[in-house]
Amino acid sequence: MSEYRNDVYPRKNRLLFCDPHREFCRNHHRIIGHFLAVRAWMRGLECIVLVRDDLEAFLGLKRFKTARVRWLMEDLKPWFPSQTPYYKTTSPSSIHSLFLARVPMKEHLPVGSMTTAERIADMDARAPRTERLTTKDDGSEVPSLPKIVSMLSVFAAGLDAPKRTRRRRPKKANVAMV
User: Fold this and answer.
1) pLDDT (tens digit, 9 = 90+) per residue, 99-120?
2) What are the structural domain ranges in the chain?
3) How large is the C-alpha radius of gyration of the chain?
4) φ, ψ of residue 50 in degrees (nearest 5)
5) pLDDT tens digit string along 44-93?
6) Residues 76, 83 contacting (CB under 8 angstroms)
């Protein structure tokens, strides 16, 4: 058992002896990262937004621990280096939505307390294209992990090609000042 201690193996090999649960979560998160990157590309988005229901459906969780949210964000960094989480309370386990982008987004996001839909609608005109992953609030549009792996495998094998679907960005209503 002593050969598994950190002082025996160099730092780069320590991943080989990680917690099995952390490794399972990392693999799960990477699959989600691949899926979200392909989905964003297919829709012509620079930023894709996950709401809590999406996260619950992807991860199969109703309650989030702070560590799981941190792990998810850490594991999605290669695909989405710019990440902005929003919380219902000050606790990281109360995550409300997660903005995942390939480009810096902070400067384009409005500040203050608002719904995810309001936040997306209030982004400035120069903001990269941003949409929610799903349109329903119940997580029913999130595919299961087996469906995601199947879809990604078919694309990787060249048996099918993703079909680009671009939704139009809703125009902001011009409100005349009275």
Assistant:
1) 999 999 888 999 888 899 999 9
2) 14-156
3) 19
4) -105, 130
5) 999 999 998 898 888 888 777 888 888 999 999 999 999 999 988 877 67
6) yes
Residue type, 168: R
Tokens representing residue 134 in the block: 């799903």
Any idea which residue has 């094998």 for tokens? 157
Helical ranges in 14-103 per DSSP H:
20-43, 52-59, 66-76
Closest CA to 39 of 108, 102, 104: 102
Going by C-beta distance under 8 Å and a sequence separation of 6 or more, which residues neighbour residue 85? 69, 73, 92, 95, 97, 98, 99
142 neighbors 134 (Cβ within 8 angstroms): yes
Residue with structure tokens 């119940």? 138
Give 79-136 as a 3 state SS string. Answer: CCCEEEEEECCCCHHHEEEEEEECCCCHHHCCCCCCCHHHHHHCCCCCCCCEEECCCC
CB neighbour list of residue 152: distance below 8 Å, 6 or more residues apart: 31, 34, 35, 38
Residue 150 identity (one-letter amino acid)? S
